[in-house]
Specification:
The complex is a heterodimer of chains A (278) and B (238).
Chain A (H helix, E strand, L loop, with lengths): L6 E11 L2 E11 L4 E5 L6 H9 L6 E6 L2 E2 L4 H10 E4 L12 H11 L4 H14 L15 H13 L5 E5 L7 H16 L3 E6 L2 H7 L2 E6 L2 E6 L1 H4 L3 H6 L6 H9 L9 H8 L8
Parallel strand pairs in A: 3-8, 3-9, 6-7, 7-8
Antiparallel strand pairs in A: 1-2, 1-4, 4-5, 9-10
Helix pairs in contact in A: 3-4, 3-5, 4-5
Chain B lengths: L5 H8 L7 H17 L2 H19 L4 H26 L1 H24 L2 H10 L4 H32 L6 H28 L16 H20 L7
């Protein structure tokens, strides 16, 4: 049977210096359309794992598989890797290369050999999807952090990667920006893009993810359904995390499962029995 | 917070932003050429007036920003003209000074209306080797990033000093910090470039098109200045 998982990690380990393991023996299977949240404290290995999955760093042990085949680090192999897997860095400024927004978003298609008229169409669509067509001719260094994140994301989405890796994408965004980000990620996941997000934000992870993966000292401490994993207070405390507020409130009030994962769900869940005066 | 170099900001936001660099280079470059060949009096004053009008009324650049950018250049030219007074006399020094100021106004027009990336794209279309243009693009991005870092560090220092003057020790610590962070930034940008598979820098063709009407007007103005200079040659000798 052909393995069609867009990306897998098999026994992946990485050390920045001899003996200092940032990632230890991580196995991760990521099906198409998955929404995986990597949770963990600072230094838990989230960002490093994303760098390994993106091909930016070379694994010390283990291997990364793309669509079932071992990802190669040859020139052609890396090109394929970049096409298949897009990574949004924590500071988007680090990956914006061109002087203006449209030039930066066009970089990927043009480098991939797309003709200019088609590249312009793709850029316009990507900017519209990110709700930033008005920024097209602006210089990237004059944008706010949230705008830079959207531009960097547009630069990834314009290439339609099979796997999208996001390092703290909601950090620095206002509530409207977070809502727009979540809607965009939901659309991508429904279209089959596998999304892996590293975050500290347990509330966001609880609401958005189909699966959470808690990292501790470079290894996977727990993995599974958000409602199950994030209810384990003892494990979360060990990993220097806290349970999501909505889940904690629902558990404190008591009531039927499944527990609500978003504010609207919480309102609906609490209303029938007037558990809480809303 | 986002900070940026004032000149760069003006170059990106003026009324001539969408005008083709060829239009601007024809206008500013032509006037610059005239400033260097026509008699200083009165033609340098006319060239200065034309460049100033184009900058302030055409490109709608604020007078204050224009003055702030031009003043150091005029200061430098004035300082250079002083020894010339002793060596070559008043008239010669004044002529050199006037030519210099007119040329500075022409260069200011180009610098304040044309962002660096537009110039680099024009250079690419003029068949300057791609590797040089791509290198210049990356250097430009790095300079802008380091400028932002510098502004942040300066703000941080100001806040810690509560408006006081920084000591030599504090200033040198900040300079060291800027250097370290610039190197870190360069490494992160290198990683970002590698992540995006930077092997050459393909760019979209700029949307700005040359305007025939503008080019004709620019050349007509320059031709009029040249014709007037020839006509009044006996009164204002070359």
């Amino acid at each position: 049977m052909v393995n069609r998982l867009p990306i897998e990690a098999r026994g992946v380990s990485y050390a920045y210096a001899p003996g200092h393991w940032a990632v230890r023996n991580v196995d991760l299977d990521v099906p198409a359309g998955a929404r995986i949240a990597l949770l963990g404290a600072n230094g838990a290995g989230k960002s490093t794992l994303l760098l390994l999955l993106s091909g930016a760093e070379h694994v010390c042990h283990g291997e990364i598989l793309l669509h079932g085949s071992s990802a190669e680090r040859s020139r052609e192999g890396l090109r394929r890797w970049r096409r298949e897997v897009g990574l949004l860095l924590q500071d988007p400024e680090d990956q914006l290369l061109a002087p203006t927004v449209e030039q930066d978003v066009a970089f990927g298609p043009l480098r991939g050999g797309v003709e200019e008229p088609r590249a312009r169409q793709l850029v316009e669509r990507a900017l519209a999807d990110m709700a930033i067509p008005h920024l097209a001719t602006r210089p990237v260094h004059e944008l706010s952090l949230g705008e830079k994140k959207r531009v960097a994301l547009a630069g990834l989405l314009v290439q339609a990667p099979a796997v999208l890796l996001l390092d703290e994408p909601a950090a620095g965004l206002d509530p409207g920006g977070v809502r727009a980000l979540r809607e965009m990620l939901d659309t991508l996941a429904r279209a089959g893009t596998a999304i892996i997000m590293a975050t500290h934000d347990v509330d966001f992870a609880y609401e958005w993810a189909s699966e959470v993966c808690v990292l501790f000292q470079g290894g996977i401490l727990a993995r599974g359904e958000p409602a199950e994993i994030l209810a384990d207070r003892e494990m979360l405390t060990h990993a220097s995390l806290e349970p999501p507020l909505l889940l904690e409130a629902a558990l404190a009030v008591g009531g039927p499962s499944p527990f609500p994962r978003s504010r609207p769900e919480f309102r609906e869940w609490a209303r029938p029995t007037r558990r809480i005066a809303l | 917070m986002h900070v940026h170099a004032p000149l760069d900001h003006i170059a990106f936001s003026n009324a001539w932003r969408t005008r083709s660099p060829i239009d601007k280079m024809t206008f500013g470059g032509g006037l610059l050429l005239l400033a260097s060949v026509l008699p200083a009096m009165p033609w340098s004053a006319a060239i200065f007036a034309a460049a100033a009008t184009a900058t302030l009324a055409g490109a709608r650049i604020p007078v204050r920003a224009w003055g702030r950018f031009l003043a150091p250049q005029i200061g430098f030219l004035s300082a250079a003209a002083l020894p010339l007074i002793l060596g070559a006399g008043w008239e010669r020094a004044a002529a050199v000074w006037m030519r210099g100021v007119a040329a500075a106004a022409c260069m200011t027009l180009l610098a304040m209306t044309t962002p660096v990336p537009d110039l680099l794209l024009a250079a690419r279309r003029a068949r300057v080797p791609a590797v040089l243009v791509e290198l210049a693009f990356l250097v430009y991005r790095l300079i802008v990033s380091i400028w932002e870092l510098f502004e942040r560090l300066r703000l941080g220092l100001d806040l810690r000093l509560r408006g006081g003057k920084p000591s030599l020790h504090a200033a040198s610590l900040s300079a060291g910090n800027l250097l370290t962070r610039s190197i870190q930034k360069a490494r992160r940008v290198e990683r970002g470039a590698s992540l995006r598979g930077l092997e050459g820098f393909p760019m979209l063709t700029p949307r700005a098109r040359t305007s025939r009407a503008f080019l004709v007007s620019a050349v007509a103005l320059q031709a009029s200045l040249l014709a007037a200079a020839i006509l009044f040659r006996s009164r204002f000798p070359w």
